[in-house]
Amino acid sequence: MIANGRSFYESCLSSNSLLIGYSSTSLHWLSHKPCNISNHCASLFAQGDELKAFQEQARLDFNHFLEYRSNELISGGVLILLIPCVDDHGSNGFDILREILYKCAQLCLTAQELLEYTFPIHARSYAECVDIQLFDRFSFELIKSEFNSVQMPFIQQWQNKEITQDEFIKLIVSYVRSWSESILKQTLMTSNRSREEIEQIQSQFWSLYSDELRKEFNQLLDMHMNFTYLILKKKND
User: Fold this and answer.
1) What is the dihedral of CA 4, 185, 35, 230, to 10 degrees?
2) How far apart are CA 192 and CA 173, in angstroms?
3) Taking the chain, what is the end-to-end CA distance rounded to the nearest angstrom?
4) Which of 45, 88, 109, 110 has its Cβ near the most Cβ atoms within 10 Å?
């Protein structure tokens, strides 16, 4: 077993040393934020040049990811990818969670902080994930590709009456905080907020977030996650 603290958009292992590679719900995170988004915190809602900047960064990062994994895999090695993506309507299935994040940010942050509060995330389309020319360039054969939409597990728990509404809300808040709170904290630190201010704003932010989730409860029951599932095999030399 190897623990490697490097970005997977870089070389992580020695050449021809990997038999099976697996990445689940991580490739929507970019190597860096290409720009701030002026009208939202997520590229899902970006427009014009800002959207193009995120699309281009996602393209470059996917290229780098496949290039380095191809170098690390042995001939015949397999790469299994579960990539969050958008459907034909441009939705990732839980847009409402990001809409509420931005609404709370508007209430808690200054104008400059709101601009900086941009996630280095971009959900690709299925077509952007399944790029045969790109696979060929890095000696990959596409074994399987699927688009799937999966209901969030706590929705089924609610429908089965296994949890209360308050428990449902707490589970969503915990899930969203797990991947978003570091961006909020980083934004506040960048603007030289004191530790006390940061803690106060974070507490206020998540209290507001919980309140907004309750207001939009019926919409939450329609949430799902869209994924592209890929199996790639490195061609023999």
Assistant:
1) 40
2) 26
3) 27
4) 109
Buried/exposed code over 76-105 (b: 16+ C-beta within 10 A; e: otherwise): ebbbebbbbbbeeeeebbbbbbbbbbbebb
Give me the amino acid identity at 48: G
Q: CA distances (Å), 59 to each of 46, 88, 113, in order?
A: 16, 18, 27
H/E stretch holding 101: helix 95-108
**Token output for 207:** 């209290």
Asked if the model's pLDDT at residue 197 lies above 70, the reply is yes
Residue-wise pLDDT tens digits, 72-111: 999 999 999 999 999 999 999 999 999 999 999 999 999 9
Residues in the chain: 237
Residue 226: per-residue pLDDT: 97
Joined tokens for residue 55: 């699309």
